[in-house]
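Lecture 7 notes: from sequence to structure.

We start with a single chain of 271 residues. Read the sequence below before looking at the structure.
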Amino acid sequence: GKDQPKDVHIKACGRVCALSSRCSEAQIQTFMRSGGTSLLTSLLKSLDEDILDAAATALTSLSAPSVRKPEDRVFDFKGTQVYVKELSFSDSGTAYNVWTAAMVLAQWMARSRTFASCIDRGEKVLELGSGLGVSGILAAKLGGHVTLSDFVPHVLDNLEASVVLNAIQNRAVVRRLNWAEEAGVTGTCSNHGWYAGGDCGSGGGREDERQHKTLDEEEHFDVIIGSDICYEHDHPALLEGVLRRRLAQGGRLFFLYAVRFPTLHAQLLKR
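Now the structure, written as tokens:
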């Protein structure tokens, strides 16, 4: 129950994670149908970050039964299923798997009347730093016209495949988005590591990135979403540049991330 001490909640969530790796898909589905998912979801309303993280991690583990291949994942958000394929870290960096923040954001989107009211007329939605695209794909299935965006070519290829896999070709597109270009920044920045041989605002030295379409110059969005997309020292400034250019007047931003670096957090709040 929610009135139990904090350590009881965290231990219970840890137990769910441990058991989910050894249970069959049928056993996991039985647990979820018998109220397990509802109990864990209720913990997502906690104001305690440790409980929130433990519950989200447990929910993630339930969405990836051991009988599936590691790269194939299916998530269920209040009856809406999202299919993704995980990638290798060497090809995709931090976009190789689904992070806890993405799960928490998607769980909130699926049950939020506020979010539903923002996309109930098919408004344009931009997901920043899509990675595997869980939140963006869900937004499309909930009714938005979604642009999934990222920077790494292999990640963009995978997102395009996921659009087809989820049968949302009429509601979602994939675009390459270089935050440095958006913010008008030149010189070496955190993007530089992926594209050796070019400045971060110049498109880098890799030809494969140019095969992916980019946003139109004057394209704006009614809703912008993102999860755990600020983790480099220059991300707050770059993110501000993207939002100033792409968020429509009167638009809404839904942004969730884990506070790992206090200094970075302070910079983000200042922006």
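The chain has a mean pLDDT of 81. Keep this in mind for problem set 3.
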